[in-house]
């Protein structure tokens, strides 16, 4: 066994700890309303695991997508209340709130134009996502409209968008406009792909990451996240100052 093998072995032995993160602001823990937790039992088990990792607060963000997940503030609020009741019954003392992960499409723009209520967290932050392959036609215009309405948009997992990987100028344009970036911790493990891992590392090294999240959907996500301490990014993540702690 060589010196590098010994180093890698010691890295892998380190248990995952997320105390440095404090608050997870991207997850799918309300059961039965999107592609996340399927039951209250699963939700509670996932929340216990996240709490055991050192997180003091969870802001769960169900998908709002016109074609697939037609969630509303009422649906999400009711789901959160049921989950909070069960957590109280089981004496699980972790703070949990709910916002949403909005898919940017024409219907979302219509909601914005009509001043329909949108779920936010912290200092009026709103978590948004796009399709992974093609850039939305009105991407920058939608960000501008959100800011005009007083929202502070956070682009969920930009490292996963192929159009940003292929068009550096588009990425730089978003950076220049001050759009907040949220990176999935799983991206640093190679869970999604090597190019996504490389993109996440690049954004982290350039200090462009303002928020990090687990994007937890199920136990498979958390099982894979256990590999994070073995990555070269783990120490950088622990030493970075993210805005999660302000939520």
List keywords for this structure.
TIM Barrel, hydrolase, protein-tyrosine-phosphatase, globular, alpha/beta, 247 residues, 6-stranded parallel sheet, EC 3.1.3.48, 3-stranded parallel sheet, manganese ion binding, Caps_polysacc_synth_CpsB/CapC
What does this structure look like?
The protein has 247 residues and is an alpha/beta fold. The protein has a single domain, classed as Alpha-Beta Barrel (TIM Barrel). 40% of the residues lie in helices and 13% in strands. It has helices spanning 3-13, 40-52, 73-89, 106-113, 139-148, 162-166, 168-176, 194-205, 219-225, 234-239; strands spanning 23-24, 57-60, 63-64, 95-98, 101-103, 125-129, 152-156, 180-184, 211-213. The strands form two sheets. It has a six-stranded parallel β-sheet with strand order 3-5-6-7-8-9. The protein has a three-stranded parallel β-sheet with strand order 1-2-4. Strand 8, helix 8 (194-205) and strand 9 (211-213) form a beta-alpha-beta unit. 35% of the residues are buried. It is an enzyme of class 3 (hydrolase). Belongs to the metallo-dependent hydrolases superfamily. CpsB/CapC family. It holds the Pfam family CpsB_CapC.
